[in-house]
Design brief:
With 384 residues, the protein is an all-alpha fold. The chain has 15 helices and no strands. Helix 4 crosses helix 14 and helix 5 runs antiparallel to helix 10.
């Protein structure tokens, strides 16, 4: 198994995420854009996840050329992004964001499938590879935050372009797993039959709601902290605290998977996610409370992401894994992230940070209720 080459992809991919997510809204704000416009533009990064992963997932499952699709997607990402350096209007920036993210967002779900195929029967070791994504995020968010305290925010696209190039170069040294050609013998109705199971439908809905609730965090958390008087270096450090907690969680995740059921871990993680948004809503002025809230990122993102990947593998058959991962990305990070970013932009002007994060907590409560009622993974095999 090419451990270091697989880990390198996650390192660079999430380093790019750690550069864009906390600071891109500040970059947009530097052009004098309103909160609503920032929300719309940030939603574009998520919107392409609704369509792109499903298109590429279908092609990968039918052709078996998953690694080639990953390489093409990574290459086209940086080529298209170059156009951002000549954009100053909301329209121009929005078009470039939509186009480059169409390919960027198609890459990760298919690479997740490749990683699981490389792991084979040792899939509980997934988190040991994925943890390097969290390391990349921490290094990027802290390094970029410190750098932006000394240089203009307009340097941000240059940093992002460098990371895009590293992602592409890394895909060139990762080989496809042996014996993973497309399986077209299974009837096409297989995917429809899986999606027809209520438990699978609720699973996708729950992760839509989870990412919906993260909308204010990914879009306006940095803006809120800056308004409260935190420096960009401090903002980067707070983001990093959350991802350090996520790193530690990924290290112990194999042990948690062996000791507890996926259902139990999901319900606990959703409960901690609710607590996190409530702490940010009411006590963001106190740095010690923000530190605690950031530690809960281990549950709201790290644990729920690992659980989601495991449930996709559990629910979807071998020849639908690419589309399963794509649907998971589309429902959560795509539709949920886009809706969360868009609506948080509308709510922010009317409700402020407190009201918006309180709404995020309420959305997570709905997800918790649905999961407690419907998610029983051990019963799914009886329906197969």
């Amino acid at each position: 198994m090419p451990y270091f080459r697989l880990s390198g992809f996650y390192l660079f991919y999430f380093a790019l995420l750690g550069t864009l997510v906390p600071y891109w809204s500040l970059y947009l704000q530097s052009f004098g854009m309103s909160a609503q416009m920032i929300g719309v533009l940030m939603a574009l990064l998520h919107l392409s996840r609704v369509i792109a992963p499903n298109i590429w997932g279908w092609i990968a499952d039918r052709t078996g050329q998953r690694m080639r699709i990953v390489r093409y997607g990574a290459c086209l990402t940086w080529i298209i992004f170059i156009a951002i350096f000549w954009q100053t209007s909301a329209l121009g920036i929005g078009v470039v964001m939509l186009l480059f993210s169409f390919f960027w967002n198609a890459v990760l779900p298919q690479f997740e499938v490749l990683t699981l195929q490389h792991l084979g029967v040792s899939r509980d070791r997934y988190s040991r590879i994925r943890v390097w994504g969290s390391v990349g995020f921490v290094l990027a968010v802290m390094g970029t935050g410190v750098l932006l305290d000394h240089v203009d925010i307009r340097w941000l696209p240059g940093i992002a372009l460098l990371l895009m190039l590293l992602i592409w170069l890394n895909t060139l040294v990762v080989s496809a797993p042996q014996g993973t050609t497309a399986d077209t013998a299974e009837p096409a109705k297989s995917l429809r039959s899986i999606l027809g199971v209520p438990q699978v439908q609720v699973f996708l809905l729950v992760f839509f709601l989870v990412q919906f609730s993260h909308g204010p965090y990914y879009t306006f958390y940095s803006v809120m902290l800056q308004d409260l008087g935190y420096s960009r270096g401090q903002i980067g450090q707070l983001w990093a605290v959350g991802v350090v907690a996520e790193v530690l969680l990924f290290v112990v995740m194999p042990l948690l998977f062996r000791r507890f059921s996926l259902r139990f871990l999901m319900l606990v993680s959703l409960s901690l996610c609710i607590l996190r948004w409530l702490l940010i809503a009411f006590l963001a002025q106190r740095v010690e409370v923000l530190l605690l809230a950031q530690l809960l990122h281990a549950a709201s993102f790290g644990s729920l992401h690992a659980i989601g990947i495991a449930l996709v593998y559990h629910y979807f058959s071998h020849n639908t894994q690419g589309r399963g991962q794509a649907l998971f990305a589309s429902a959560g990070f795509g539709a949920g992230g886009a809706a969360g970013a868009l609506l948080s932009g509308w709510f922010w002007d009317s409700w402020g940070g407190q009201g918006t994060f309180l709404a995020a907590a309420c959305i997570c409560v709905v997800g918790l209720v649905l999961a407690s009622r419907w998610i029983y993974p051990e019963r799914f095999r009886q329906l197969d």
